[in-house]
Amino acid sequence: MREACFRYNLQMMKKTTKKRPATKRPPTKKAKGRPAQRGRSPIGHASTSPLSPPILPPEDDLPPTGDEDVLVVADAEESAVAEEMPPALAIPAAGAEQTFFTQRYEIKHDLMKRIDLYLRDRLPDASRAMLQKLIKSGKVLVNGRHAKSSNILRANDVVDVTLPQSAGIDGGFVPEDIPLDIVYEDDQFIAINKQAGLIVHPARGHWAGTLINALLFHAEKTNSTLSTGSDPWRPGIIHRLDRDTTGIILVAKTDEAHWRIAGQFERRTVRKTYMALVHGIVELDSDLIDAPLAVNAKIREKYAVRTDIGKPAQTVYTVKERYRTGGPGGAGYTLLELAPKTGRTHQLRVHCQHIGHPIVGDSMYGGRQITANDVLPTQRSTPSTQEAGAPLITRQALHAFRLQFVHPTLFTRMDLQAKIPPDIAHMLDLLAPCRLRKSAS
User: Fold this and answer.
1) What is the pLDDT of residue 389?
2) Residue 416 near residue 248 (C-beta atoms within 8 A)
3) 208 domain-assigned
4) Is residue 63 part of a domain?
5) By C-alpha distance, which of 209, 179, 202, 232 is closest to 71?
6) Which alpha helices (H) appear in 298-419, and where do they start and end?
7) Please, which residues bridge with residue 371 across strands?
8) Which segments in the chain show pLDDT lower than 70?
9) For site-directed labelling of 392, which of 33, 104, 273, 423 has its Cα 20 to 30 A away?
10) 128-136 helix and 115-122 helix, angle to the nearest 10 degrees
11) Which pairs from 325-330 meet CB under 8 Å and 24+ separation?
12) H-helix or E-strand containing 13?
């Protein structure tokens, strides 16, 4: 009986330990040629490691070439198909002929940045959808190979982008008779005192009424030219100012003048001076604001002081006048002279907010509009009731009033100044009776 039980148990153990038939998996396709190394992109030596936070777009006051790459322009002829692209950047329909050119960027440092995000910074007039189409259609090469949107740029990478030609008067921009306040002009460059509300160059949603449209009209009228520079969609433009920032801006007429003046901006030998009216009484007569800037973590249209990923940004301020309205308990204002040592986007506006003194009228960065009642509360009867409640300024009270640089061909020192605009001048006139005794000379 005991032997029978043992045999039965042995048979049951054999049945339960019987191997199951292995399931067949479909064979994996092996890539032809040398397989890419793990953790590396098939193009060049771009790593597919997690992306670092986004890097700032080109600085407002610096030329397109910075310390991260070098731009080389070459010619090419090709045709492609257009799919809902912006007018100035549109590629012609199939069968149509158009001249194309190639922009080459030689990367100097490890950017740890995707190629599509890099091109969006370098070509801000192009929509993200258009850049994706250019990449998919093979118009973007990295180290001579077709790029993918996810490719990460590293040092010594070479990026070639093939774009449609669009050159000023002969391109897609229409000359417009927009008044220009010319500070200085010769056969090499022109200095403009830009008015408020004027966009420097066409961009998405603003294809007319820009400074470039006005400059093209002026060029036709005076039988002059504008430089090509590094960007055919911004003829003559060396540096920029925000839409609602007034003041002096330089525009090149020849390519030689463009590259020589742009080189001075790049080497930071151009001395720029701004005037700004800010909220509050600034205590120190002069100081350095050293606070790195990057895109705001929540609102991409804004910038913020970010010590983690920000690019270095420095501004020296000097107090010119202090004002106290309506006695000791009244509101305070300070007229500052700002000298940026770097040229980051919205740098002066963010730095003023950072020290607790936002620029008057700059609603994006904590400033507010002021009225005649705010400035002269004890003299409400001076202006009419309607005028007393109306804003004195509807933009940031920021003016680029001085530029010092070397002439591109004469090599003489240039010192150009732009007259303060009427809205800021009117505010300063109203504040004059409220001036405090102590001020920086």
Assistant:
1) 74
2) yes
3) yes
4) no
5) 232
6) 347-354, 372-375, 385-389
7) 391
8) 1-100, 124-127, 164-172, 203-205, 229-232, 327-329, 377-388, 438-441
9) 273
10) 130
11) 325/374, 325/375, 325/376, 325/377, 325/431, 325/434, 326/376, 326/377, 326/378, 330/377, 330/434
12) helix 2-16
DSSP bridge partners of 105: 71, 159
User: What pLDDT, on the 0 to 100 scale, is given for residue 79?
Assistant: 27
Residues of the chain by 3-state class (helix, strand, coil), percent to 5: 20, 25, 50
DSSP 3-state of 194: strand
Cα–chain center distance at 62: 9
Do 244 and 351 belong to one domain?
no
Q: What pLDDT shows up at residue 302?
A: 94
- The torsion region of residue 375 among left (phi > 0), alpha (psi -120 to 50) and beta comes to alpha
- Name the burial class of residue 352, with classes exposed (0-12), middle (13-18) and buried (19+) by CB atoms within 10 angstroms of its CB: buried
Q: Kindly list the catalytic residues.
A: 242
Q: Phi and psi dihedrals of 215, rounded to 5?
A: -65, -35
Task: Examine the fold and report which residue of 131, 165, 199 is the final residue of a domain before the chain moves on.
Answer: 165
* pLDDT at residue 99 in the model: 58
5 assigned to some structural domain: no
Are the C-beta atoms of residues 189 and 261 closer than 8 Å to each other? yes
Residue with tokens 């102590």: 438
* Whole-prediction pTM: 0.65
Among left, alpha and beta (phi > 0; psi -120 to 50; other), residue 382 is alpha
Of 384, 363, 370, 366, which Cα lies nearest the Cα of 331?
370
DSSP secondary structure letters along 73-141: EEEEEE-----S--GGGPPPPTT--EEEEEEEEEE-S----BHHHHHHHH-TTS-HHHHHHHHHTT-EE
Q: What is the Cα–Cα distance from 429 to 441, expressed in whole angstroms? A: 19
Q: What angle do CA 432, 354, 297 make, to 5 degrees?
A: 140
Distance CA 247, CA 398 (A): 8
Going by C-alpha positions, the residue among 213, 282, 274, 268 that lies closest to residue 245 is 274
Main-chain dihedrals φ then ψ at residue 159, nearest 5 degrees: -110, 125
Contact partners, residue 390, CB within 8 Å, separation at least 6: 371, 372
**Running DSSP on this structure, what letter comes out for residue 59?**
P
- Rounded to whole angstroms, how far apart are CA atoms 228 and 253? 9
Range of the structural domain that residue 183 is part of: 167-267
The CATH number of the domain holding residue 155 is 3.10.290.10
Q: What is the tally of structural domains in the chain?
A: 3
Decide: 394 and 361 in contact? Cβ < 8 Å. Answer: yes
Which residues are CB-neighbours of 438 under 8 A, at least 6 positions away?
322
| H or E element, residue 252 | strand 246-252
Cα dihedral 363, 389, 282, 323, rounded to 10, equals 160
* The residue to which tokens 């997690």 are assigned: 50
Query: What CATH number has the domain bearing residue 221?
Result: 3.30.2350.10
